[in-house]
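Hi there. Long-time user, first ticket. I'm pasting a complex I've been working with (about 544 residues overall). I'd like to know whether the download I got is complete or cut off, because the file seemed smaller than I expected. Thanks.
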Amino acid sequence: MVLMKRDFLNMLIGASDALDEKIDEFSEIDSKFGDGDHGVTIGRISKVIRAKAENSSDDETLSEMFETLGRDIMNVNGGSAGPLYGSIFEGFGEGLAGMNKADEAAIKSMFAGALDNISLISNAKVGEKTLMDTLIPACEKAKSSSSPLPQLLEDITDAALQGAEYSKQCQAKFGRARFHKEATIGTMDAGAYSLYCLISGFSSAINK
Amino acid sequence: MMKKFINDPSNLTQELLEGLALANKDIVELVRGNLIVNKKLKDADRVTVVTLGGTGHEPALQGFVGEGMADVAACGDIFAAPGPESCFEALKLADKGKGIVFIVLNHAGDMLTANLTMKAAKKEGINVIKVVTQEDITTAPRDDANNRRGFVGCIPAFKIAGGAAAQGKSLEEVAAITQKFVDNMGAISVSLTGATHPVTGGDLAVLDENEMGVGMGQHGEGGGYKIPMKTADETVALLMGELVKDLSIKSGEKLMCVVNGCGATTLMELLISYRAAVKYLEARGIEVVANIVNELLTVQETGGYQLFIARMDDELLSYWSEPCDTPYFKRLPTMK
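Hi, the file is complete. Here it is re-exported in full:
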């Protein structure tokens, strides 16, 4: 299977739907060790994603679409989530540079691009209770899986879920949660969860 | 949920910034939706001062924009840093050819945005030096300052930077002076009652009737520890003891002391606590030469305060004494 621009627009809608479903949950998790507004910020990011899906002009390339979307996300005025999610989407765009359709190799490049780009602003590793607990395993799975599309997206989603689950047992080392230290163990990281939801939304749009 | 005088929560930030600009028409204006700008910035022929941060801490940060303090504040949503694009616009507005000092509080969102902004600024050739405030002493030792949060110290820092700029210092000088000031300050918070997030309605912190929280953050992110309630003097002795130790303040030194009310603590309590602070220091041969006792950087309706000290010398005092005119901090020119 090869993904065309139309499929990517559906993936964006799928991601936005998946995020919208869980807005309250995101805030609830975030209220334990933060100020409880992750849902509000994700809601904003979801709107921006949906707006891009609805308004991307036909001559906007995959790369331009993701990069401009990344910039819009970066500027939702939502604290850390803006720059972090914005970098991920910009990175998707960089990974898809020069392509007008995506095969398995392109998806691998897309996720590699995201990890490369966010690493420019964050040095968080797996195990520090951040969205990297989801992103790093997802990108590693993207790289290592030999599944064809659309199964490849399911594989990535499974790895993302496992990563988000793993974040539960980690102690927060970044963001506001880190001031609660060991008390953070046992609760999933809000950003790890929302990123898993976003990735699952990509997959469910294609794996209908 | 705490009862608050708000309208639709999704318009909260916009309405609060519009209100600030309307209430201070001669001093500031609201530009581009989320930049509070010194109206006299257009005539500035000096180093300028820019800052960024979430709203919800009124009067901080944007209440301190005006001649002699910050020239532009890029404002985010409640407790959330603004995006890098608006911060970049803030820097462009503040670029008057003599350089910009960009004062950033150490919080994850603020720092992520500030670093992206600095990257864009360098690319554009904007002459800007970043100074990070990270004076909360409770979360990490002094030599691990990257894990220390920025508390109320940014406000005096705006004043020091603004004062040095008003005296015509160069960008490198203003940045070095501000950096020296922020490297020699410390703050610690004590809380009696928690507050609620105005948009989500969630609790920021919950404390029992008879306990106080020492070292809790200013967005509900906790930290520190809880102990049984003490008297005002006992509390100050505990907090000031930690501050003096952290900064290795010696007898004979001179300090600035700020008692920053976090929103629900009465001025009565702040004044009683300030008295205790001055006496504690005097008993140790330490003189307080500058102070503010007020609500500067609040945390909604949190009961409690941040106790802040900073090393002072004659040079810093001269910058501190410069006139300034912002909505929530003004200093008249001294009569000669």
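A couple of notes from our side: Chain A touches chain B through 33 residues (CB under 8 Å). Residues 91 and 140 of chain A are 15 Å apart (CA to CA).
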